[in-house]
Amino acid sequence: MMAMRCWLWPLGLCALCGCGFALRHQLDKEIQDLSAKNGDGAALCGLVNSLPPPPPSVASVEAATVSGSQSERGASTLRGPLEGGTSPTPGNWETTPSELQQVACQQREKLPPIQQRLPIPKELPGADAPDIKIPDDPKERAEYFRKLYPPIPELPPMTPPAPGPEGRPLTLADLQRLGETYNPAIKSAYAAVEAAKAAAYQAGMYPNPTVAWEHDTVETGPAGYPGGYFDQLIITGGKLTVQQAMATMDVLAAKLALRKAKSDMWTQIRSNYFAVLVAYQGIRYSEALFTFANYLYNYQIVQLSVAKKASGYEPMQLRPLVLQARYDIIQARNKYTAAWRQLAASLGLPDMPPSELAGSVHMPMPEFDYNAVLARLEYHTDVRSALVSVQKAKYNVRYQKLVPLPDVGARILTQKDYTTPPNQVVHSAVMYMTLPIWNQNRGGIRQAEWQLAQAAADPVRARNDLVAILADAYNRYITSRQQVDIVQEQIRDLLRSYKNAWARNQVEPLVVSFSDLWPVQITLESYVLMYIGALGAMWQAAVDVANLLQTEDFFQAGQRQVVPAYPVLEDLLMPLRNYPRAPIVPNAAVTAASPLATVVGGATAKQPALAPPSQPAPTPSAPTQSPALMPQSPAIPRRTENGKSPSLEGGPS
Asked: How is domain 172-182+235-399+457-649 classified at the CATH fold level?
């Protein structure tokens, strides 16, 4: 029994294998039928040949080859001896892979190269520029680099500004006095004041009498009644006084218009004055950037041509930055010229040549308090002019009520009686007036009352408009001050990291390469340009806030605040330079001979020494923090113990 049980296990396994063979045979037949229906009469081993001729890569072709060989071996094994298939014998393994390998070799010959050219669109400017191909011959190499990296073209020279009329630089007060003398807007406003005075004087004049010759009863006697009369209109109710009061309001309005014209002229002169100073400072910073970028450009060329430690394209990346810095100088010079022409036009002297100006963008600027400036809006010319209009409207209502009151006319007649002896001189008198029966001027009175209501709303409207202007100007004032401080710190930190990266590049060029320094140079130029724009926005916002105060002295409008002087770029960039240059003296005065010195390319070109301003700002004991947010305006303006606004009475510290 035990022997029979041992034979039952092999017999069961054979039966199971027979069932599997029938199932496999059925699956092979179904696969062949599906291939016949799809029109694919090729054998399974032919699936490799149906692959697309240009496979995407060599790896995919090899994968397809391996999968095809496995499919062929699998199909051959599945068909078995009954369908003409072959079993996986060593002989079959030697023939089948060789055929598939031949197909794979044919496909590799049609593959494109792995390194493809950058598809630059032909429509882009400079797309047809030739590639950088450095020759091997030393002479040809030097000539190739000379043509590939030519020197930066020189900038045209500019005429330096002339000294002031008195042989000294012009101050802001000098410019404002010149504007009051030569500006045509001031002359026009002054003429309007004198015209209003004359009109007010004329409004109070009494009407002239009428004198006439009269000859009555002609042809009734020897000569009739010849003679003449005197006629005078008597103005009643004080109409002339009210008319003169209304004209006096026009005089006050003209004087306020003159004051506003002066304030607008001061604002225009201040705006153009600081625009000239900012443009001049922009020239200095642009020249420093150009010098620094040109040095790095020449240094990289030396690394490429002499030391052979750089790639052929690396100086090409710096050249656009040098050209951009050169363009920034040209743009700054043109902006300086345009700002000076605008300043001369605001003075009323459009042909005035560029002259030296006293001051700099780093001099102390007035610090304004929002609540103090808000309280001073009550004295603005717009509000005062609206109040004058209200008073004039009141006088007009009073005058319209006096219009129905009739004026009295008086006439005295004197004649010689030639018709009746004894031919005496006779006299007669006439008194007349207009009775206000039908026309009592009720429409004029009603119109004047509504005009008064309209004028009464103008002071509030004018103050609201000024508050809106102050909100915008003060927002730009505090924001630009914060921006100047932030950009200064950003440039300082950027230059510190630049120095350390440069020093590490000199020691470990493989760790810190040129690709690590090039983005820092781009960021540096953008931050310096941003700093110049922030300086201009800061002073313009200060001018706009001072315009609402309408004070003649800009620096007495608020408490003095020290503007931290931005350090000279050449001093900050000095550790990056390894070629001899003239020493830079800290806190040296600006040379008046050539503030617009010419900048030329090359490391040996003479560059202007960018010194700090001629009037260095005093160092404060503690830095003044700019308000980060605009304070809320209380109902009552903030006052000191003596009852005065602290920010409006503060003089220079």
From this structure: Outer membrane efflux proteins (OEP) (1.20.1600)
